[in-house]
Amino acid sequence: MEPIVIKRIYEDASENDGYRILVDRIWPRGVSKEEAKLDEWDKNIAPSTELRKWFDHKEERLHEFEIRYKEELADQKEELNRLLKIAQTQKVTLLYGAKDPKINQALVLKNILNQIV
């Protein structure tokens, strides 16, 4: 299994990123599709609009967000398995637009994917 990492989409793309997946439901402001250099934009595994708005990237809501997001992802087993299959052959970089590298859905998703393995 190759590593699954997270990276802010506003950082420059790198050859070392491997397979680049945007895991936000909304396209990040100020980033062109060319600059993003995505392999895919996977809205299916992004938090629902309702959950995203409730979370609002507030640290005190992170634990509850993790629980709710994991519940949402329970319906996305096929999609999660597809991502894990990609990670069997190449590094996967989960891209997010949030400002904080410790308070965002990509980090939660990475942890969930690593628990499945």
TrEMBL record:
Name of the protein: DUF488 domain-containing protein
Matches recorded under InterPro entries: YeaO-like
Entries under Pfam families matching the protein: DUF488-N3i
Organism listed in the record: Flavobacterium ardleyense
